[in-house]
Design goal:
The chain is of the alpha/beta class and 737 residues long. The chain is 43% helix and 13% strand.
Length: 737
């Protein structure tokens, strides 16, 4: 923006300063979370306080002292920068989008309601636990970028997910902060909904969050009108027992539909992101039957079939995991209590209602599965990678008949033998992606602006400027990689010192932490949810061999870990403890670190700073594994089991495959085989290529792999491509129905 236009805007602004109101308005739209200029503006108000507030601009503004405010009011530079950010946001919101320019008039009437139990939008807005939330948050941001008309539905948790503290013995301490909603970027809509519950009516407040052009409605039960037990429903993300879980999922699904009504939203498409939201489809079915599906003269059976067809036609369901624990199940007794009026409202029997969620419809001992309910009521279903789609088809084939159809009334039309050919099961796939601007280190933008000329605003899902990454001179790309690694090492040291100080460590141990890790050593990262199938400690299978690799004087290697297990997952927490114990041994001290409390900030630092991203799940349990899509934005390389998204990307040059992608076995022999494969790659390929430098100090073979990684991953595995694919292949067909 020119200086003249900036001065004109300043002249038009009220003299009595509304600077703080303007800063708050800017902070209330989460667009700033993927705009580095807006983030830099907030950070400049008080850099130390910015870090202390977990990069929360609203908390920062509330904590500025009177003297700071007086000084900032006189800062003309601050005003100019604020005007530039306001203009950038205004330009973003007003600019034409891919959807507005490519959709027909009928298609522009589409309105997608996207239901999810968690959304990861920023570390300061901690309403997420792991990959599902990160994917959902990136989905909303790309929907905004592309102009896809989408509103999100979720919950606003008073305590969010737990904060992890690693105790001196390596065990996990679980702590729950309590968030002040006045310091979160949410607005009270002034509207509430009321849901019937066995213990009385449940009232939920509707909050609104703005994510660029996208809007999210979040439900909150922590209200004086509710009982203490009801207020606790939205206290913890994935907290409480199975009773809390069914209450949360009724609130998300049924309550989410009521919230859309209250907000004046009329979706033409329902997208259930994982089975947690499946009750939304059940509520949609109730509404269709109440309208008698537009056929008053039809028989009850015909009305039912028509209503089911209409709900299926407009409902999209995404399943994210083949792991049994990821599919919520409720007892028949719970369903009887919470849906006592359900059979009458749907015009079916109790057994028929329960059959909608049972894998074995006629078995009274079978539990009610939310994934099964979603599959029965969604006509557009997908996994989150090509392999995951195949796994889902095999996993759920017994729900479908030989022609790939699923009965609308499981009891009256039971499925016989399992589907002979899983390819006939109508579950497709949309491979996950990442929102590039959210995860890209701002230090790399000048380099990419110079050589790639990315069009961040107005870009469509097919725009792939990463294909020209070869234009970047090898020396400049390698210098950028070194800078990001140095930044990560400083971050690791700071976090280590914070952790040690909190544990009461001595001065000698803290001093050693300031010297740990090297800015020049090959750095490998492993950061994700510590579910046991992800095998976080696998690389320690042969400690002696690993120590030799890490402490090679000519080719040193260092490992950084971070991740949380579910509070009830003792085995996953034991994995974290094992890694902590190894990091304390003399053979690994200063070469291995476990950073506690994995969050979006740590994720950005590690995925941008690590040279290699390690991923070694048990195949095929990794549905997608989107964390590995982020390092290539920074020239990072993947070393992974051929699971999730990696089989679609790996070409032999852009990283490494640990296995052959054929085995689906598990056990000690498989762990040993995969660990040995990792050691061989480190010894024979990864470390040698990293340290093989030319006369100018550039590892040419390594840089060639970096460029190949950028070319093949960054564009193809972005949420711009992903959301565009959902729009074209799922949303618009559902809207057309």
């Amino acid at each position: 923006m020119s200086r003249v236009s900036s001065n004109r805007r300043r002249a038009a602004a009220p003299a009595a300063d509304n600077l703080w109101d303007r800063l708050r308005r800017l902070a209330m739209n989460l667009w700033w979370t993927w705009n580095p200029d807006a983030q830099a503006l907030f950070a400049s108000l008080d850099p130390a306080l910015w870090n202390a507030c977990q990069h929360n601009p609203l908390a920062l503004l509330a904590r500025l002292s009177d003297s700071q405010r007086a000084w900032l009011l006189s800062d003309d530079t601050l005003r100019v920068r604020l005007e530039q950010c306001e203009a950038a946001l205004g330009e973003y919101l007003a600019s034409p989008t891919w959807f507005s320019e490519t959709a027909t008039p009928a298609q522009r009437k589409m309105r997608v309601a996207y239901f999810c139990a968690e959304f990861a939008l920023h570390e300061s807005f901690a309403q997420y636990a792991g990959g599902l939330g990160v994917l959902a948050g990136d989905h909303l941001k790309s929907a905004s970028d592309l102009g896809v008309p989408l509103v999100a539905v979720g919950m606003l948790y008073r305590c969010g997910y737990y904060q992890q503290r690693i105790r001196p013995d390596g065990t996990t301490g679980v702590y729950y902060p309590e968030y002040d909603f006045a310091e979160l970027p949410v607005t009270d809509t002034g509207k509430t909904i009321v849901l019937p519950m066995p213990d009385g009516k449940l009232t939920a407040k509707i909050w609104r969050a703005e994510i660029g052009r996208t809007r999210a409605y979040l439900l909150d039960t922590d209200l004086p009108a509710n009982t203490p037990a009801q207020r606790a429903i939205t206290r913890h993300l994935y907290g409480g027992d199975n009773e809390t879980r069914i209450q949360q999922e009724i609130l998300l699904g049924c309550g989410g539909m009521f919230a859309l009504d209250a907000a004046g939203e009329t979706p033409t498409v329902l997208h259930l992101n994982e089975g947690h939201a499946a009750f939304a489809a059940l509520e949609a079915l109730r509404r269709e039957l109440k309208r008698k599906a537009g056929a008053k003269q039809a028989t009850p059976a015909a009305q039912w079939n028509r209503a089911v067809d209409r709900v299926r036609g407009k409902t999209v369901f995404t399943t994210h995991t083949p792991v049994p624990a990821g599919h919520d199940r409720f007892s028949a007794e719970q369903m009887d209590r919470y849906f006592a009026d359900g059979p009458a409202a749907l015009g079916i029997s109790r057994e028929e209602l329960l059959a909608l969620g049972r894998e074995r419809p006629g078995d009274p001992t079978d539990s009610f599965c939310m994934t099964v309910l979603a599959l029965r009521l969604a006509g557009h279903c997908n996994g989150v990678s090509k392999l995951n789609g195949d796994v889902a088809r095999r996993m759920w084939r017994h729900l479908f008949d030989a022609k790939g159809n699923i009965p609308s009334k499981p009891l009256s039309n039971p499925v016989g033998e399992k589907t002979a050919d899983p390819k006939r099961v109508p579950i497709g796939h949309v491979t996950n992606g990442v929102h590039s601007e959210t995860w890209l280190a701002p230090e790399l933008r000048p380099l990419y602006d110079k050589y790639l000329k990315p069009a961040w605003v107005g870009a469509g899902p097919g725009d792939d400027w990463w294909r020209t990454a070869g234009r970047i001179p090898a020396g400049e790309l390698w210098a950028a990689r070194r800078m990001l690694r140095e930044r990560l090492v400083h971050y690791i040291r700071r976090r280590m010192v914070e952790q040690l100080t909190r544990r009461g460590a001595g001065s000698a141990e803290i001093a050693a932490a300031w010297e740990a890790f090297s800015a020049d050593a090959l750095t490998i990262g492993f950061a994700r949810r510590f579910a046991t199938y992800k095998r976080a400690p696998l690389v320690f299978s042969d400690p002696k061999r690993l120590s030799a690799i890490l402490n090679n004087p000519k080719r040193p290697v260092q490992l950084v870990f971070s991740g949380k297990a579910h509070p009830a997952d003792r085995e996953g927490q034991a994995f974290a403890q094992r890694i902590h114990e190894f990091s304390q041994q003399p053979a690994f001290a200063g070469r291995v670190v476990l950073i506690e409390n994995y969050d979006m900030e740590t994720g950005r630092m590690l995925t941008s700073g690590c040279d290699v991203w390690l991923n070694n799940p048990l195949r095929p349990r990794e549905a997608s594994g989107t964390s590995g899509m982020k390092p290539p934005l920074h020239g990072g390389l993947n070393c992974s089991i051929l699971d999730g998204w990696w089989p679609e990307a790996f070409d032999g040059v852009n990283g490494w495959a640990i296995d052959d992608g054929k085995s689906e076995e598990s056990g000690p022999k498989v762990d040993q085989r995969d660990a040995q494969a990792i050691y061989r790659l480190l010894e024979r390929e990864i470390a040698p290529d990293f340290y093989a430098r030319d006369k100018s100090g550039v590892p040419q073979r390594w840089v060639k792999r970096m460029v190949a990684s950028m070319k093949t991953v960054c564009g193809a595995f972005s949420t711009a491509r992903m959301v565009g694919e959902y729009a074209m292949n799922y949303y618009l067909p559902a809207h057309g129905r």
